[in-house]
Amino acid sequence: MKNSDQILESGSVGKVYVKYLIPSLVGMLLMSINIVIDGIFVGHRLGGVALAGINIAVPVFSIFTAISLWIGIGGATQYSFALGEKKIGQAQIIFTRSILMVLSITILLAILAFIFRMPLAYTLGANDETIPYVMDYMNVLLLFGFVLTLENILSIFVRNDGDPNLAMIALIVTAVMNVILNYIFLFILDLGVKGSALATVSAIAIGVIILATHFFKKTSRLKFVRFQLTLDSLKRTFSIGLPSFLSELGMSVFTMGYNIAIAAVAGTAGVAAFSVLNYSHSVILMMFLGMGSAIQPLISYYRGAKLVRREKETVRLAAIVAIATGLFFFIIGLFFADQIVQLFGDFEADIHDLAVLGVRIFFSGYLFMGFNFVMMTYFQTTDRIGMATWVTVARELIFMVIFLLILPPFFGAAGVFSAIPISEFIVAASIFIYARSKHLFKLPVS
């Protein structure tokens, strides 16, 4: 039976890509579902104020996630590159260093945040009505948030060590256990918001245990070894992982920017309409993130092994799949916007009409968004950090903000919904121009 290295080096490029793509897509979709499970249970059991309290505390989770992605992707890219070079010892040093970095930074930040947790809660938007719920949820997150970062980074490294299916299984079990434990802690034990937080971290801990079984496999190369921490190694990890960190930050800017812009031109109805759109977007966005994540282990390995043709075949295939998927979602949004909105409830006419308009305009951005995510990951993985950072920053921290400022005064809500599609188009065009100038999609002569 071929080991993972033999499959990567001699297996069909298409089959290898699918082997990593499907678990990555499933894992990302489950992550998006996991995020809303707490809200669904708390909303039904404890009401709107408690739900607001959770939403205020959730950015703490986002910070931990951003840190784990920053170091996880930065470390895993180097790890797979070292495997491609057949430098197993160096790969294990990178793995050990990355795990300790994530845990150290997360625990240090959690201690500082716990000391100042009350001012932090009010800074995040708590008031006298929501503060009890915010504190109940946040206290658990700060005490056990390192479990979340450990699951994230282990999942990344297990996937890079040739076991994407185990990473997917761990996320499936985490999602299922989160549902079961939320029901038990909220509806049977009646533990309130604190119970929901405990359910989440307990489910994540179970996911960590499942991922840890990879250490006992004969094919596993994930081992903890002694190492020396150097400034250069820190710089390289943080440099490679920076686009992933900025991407996570960009999601927060996107939500905040759209909420402010739509409220200015359409009031509460506009915010409600965007909420409907954002639920759909969060699922599709995770699919595109999954497409990007699927190529990271492959491109890193091929680059280390100097398999240039397989590297380029993989990125070409991933780009085609992303564009085709984006076209599919664009068509769905264009012809089935009304049905998509109705999935989320029976809304008043003004909210419904705005949401339908939003879906039809916003979904055009998917024609370019998947391609942009795939190429950002490709640039990040192939040491083109400047271009990867440009893609990330330009999408949601430059062009989106500019268009949210200049379009709404002329086009109203349509201008708000158009900001992301136009931004994605401009970024995709810049990538295409850069790729052509560097012959990135041109296959070498066999």
TrEMBL record:
Keywords: Antibiotic resistance, Cell membrane, Membrane, Transmembrane, Transmembrane helix, Transport. GO terms for biological process: response to antibiotic. The chain crosses the membrane at residues 20-43, 49-73, 94-117, 137-158, 165-189, 195-216, 256-277, 283-302, 314-337, 357-375, 387-407, 413-435. Its main location: membrane. GO terms for molecular function: antiporter activity; xenobiotic transmembrane transporter activity. InterPro entries: MATE_fam, MATE_MepA-like, MATE_MepA_subfamily, MdtK-like. The keyword Cytoplasm does not apply. It is a multi-pass membrane protein. It is found in: Cell membrane. GO terms for cellular component: plasma membrane. Belongs to the multi antimicrobial extrusion (MATE) (TC 2.A.66.1) family. MepA subfamily. This is Multidrug export protein MepA.
